TrEMBL record:
It comes from the Bacteria. InterPro entries: ADH-like_C, ADH-like_N, ADH_Zn_typ-1, ER, GroES-like_sf, NAD(P)-bd_dom_sf, Zinc-ADH_QOR/CCCR. This is Zinc-type alcohol dehydrogenase-like protein. NCBIfam families: adh_fam_1. Keywords: Metal-binding, NADP, Oxidoreductase, Zinc. Residues 13-334 form the Enoyl reductase (ER) domain. The lineage of its organism: Bacteria, Pseudomonadati, Pseudomonadota, Betaproteobacteria, Burkholderiales. Belongs to the zinc-containing alcohol dehydrogenase family. Quinone oxidoreductase subfamily.
Length: 340
């Protein structure tokens, strides 16, 4: 099968950072689907793995953790899927990724793809939607109010992939007032179009801007990027006993200032359930099924923003470079493999 991968961590400017490969078809287990990949989306985790992971000697690592495809075969313990079904999923970080013609993925973390969305539009949803859903409802527990706080959430990085779908899910499924951050005119327009009630500038101090909205201190903050840079502002703007979630990887984070307000902090890592085989691993199937339903009902839109062509090393390097530039809005996708 065709695939794109790497055998050493290299800067994306190096043409060896991602290369075209011809590999054997993957084996699949009793809980797995064997999927013919039709489209992928690219996420920051792809760039982090490519830049840091060291495959075993002689081995190739295939990145990619967002895909849409057709089921070719099912494992002996799989229920609810059959060959020919169109599915979407984010996969597992400890398995080979979606930048390949065929991928084995646990059926318990996959779902039928939204019928109303094209392949690239659907591929843009799984990883970020799972991250946003788990953050809102499993980590921040936004359905449980914070006494005395404004029923509002600040989403730092509102125009990014995760921020884009968080805005939509909060609007579709909660009564929260959504305050997104963005700095460029195009990213402000994007966050506004997706449903943010207010957009503030994350290049300026956040707390005074939130106070100026006159809503009161928000109950929740979701920081998708540069949490160490924004933490002092977060502590200043959030209500006492508020809840903070983050998904990035700051080298250090001094949480002692959270004590005075009895703030709680929650790390969301979408891969926890598949990586550790948690007892509720099938919850990701349920979430994706609900996300597909929301998309098909028109309650959320794909955050697909840019297609870079077919799945090959050159195009994937372009996608990684764009993500690493910090200028990407929404999701970047690729679709199909060029014929031999």
């Amino acid at each position: 099968m065709k695939a794109v991968g790497f055998n050493q961590p290299l800067p994306i400017a190096d043409p060896r950072a991602l290369v075209d490969l011809d590999l054997p078809d993957p084996d699949y287990g009793e809980h797995d689907l064997l999927v013919e990949v039709q489209a992928i989306a690219v996420n920051p985790v792809d760039t982090k793995v490519r830049a840091s992971a060291q495959p075993a000697a002689g081995a190739w690592r295939i990145p990619g953790w967002d895909a849409v495809g057709r089921v070719r075969a099912v494992g002996s313990r799989v229920t609810g899927f059959k060959p020919g079904d169109r599915v979407f999923y984010a996969g597992a970080i400890d398995r080979q990724g979606s930048c390949a013609e065929l991928q084995a993925v646990d059926a318990r973390i996959a779902a039928h793809a939204p019928a109303t969305l094209g392949d690239e539009q659907a591929a843009a949803l799984p990883l970020t939607a799972l991250t946003a859903w788990e953050t809102l409802f499993d980590r921040l527990r936004v359905g449980q109010p914070v006494a005395g706080a404004a029923d509002a959430i600040v989403v730092i990085g509102g125009a990014g992939g995760v921020g884009s779908i968080t805005i939509q899910l909060a609007r579709a499924l909660t009564g929260l007032t959504v305050i997104a951050t963005a700095s460029r005119p195009e990213s402000v327009a994007w966050a506004t179009r997706l449903g943010a009630h207010h957009v503030i500038d994350h290049r300026q101090p956040l707390a005074p801007q939130v106070e100026a909205l006159g809503l009161g201190a928000p109950a929740f903050v979701f920081s998708t990027t540069h949490t160490d840079r924004y933490l002092d502002d977060i502590v200043a703007l959030i209500a006492p006993q508020g809840r903070i979630a983050l998904i990035d990887d700051p080298k250090s984070l001094d949480i002692l200032p959270l004590k005075r307000k009895s703030l709680s902090i929650h790390w969301e890592f979408m891969f926890t359930r598949p990586l550790l085989g948690t007892a509720d691993i099938a919850r990701q199937h349920e979430i994706l099924r609900e996300v597909a339903g929301l998309a098909d009902q028109g309650k959320i839109a794909s955050t697909h923003a840019q297609s870079l062509g077919t799945i090959n090393a050159q195009n994937l390097r372009r996608a990684h470079a764009l993500l690493e530039s910090g200028q990407a809005i929404g999701k970047i996708t690729l679709a199909g493999f060029a014929p031999q």
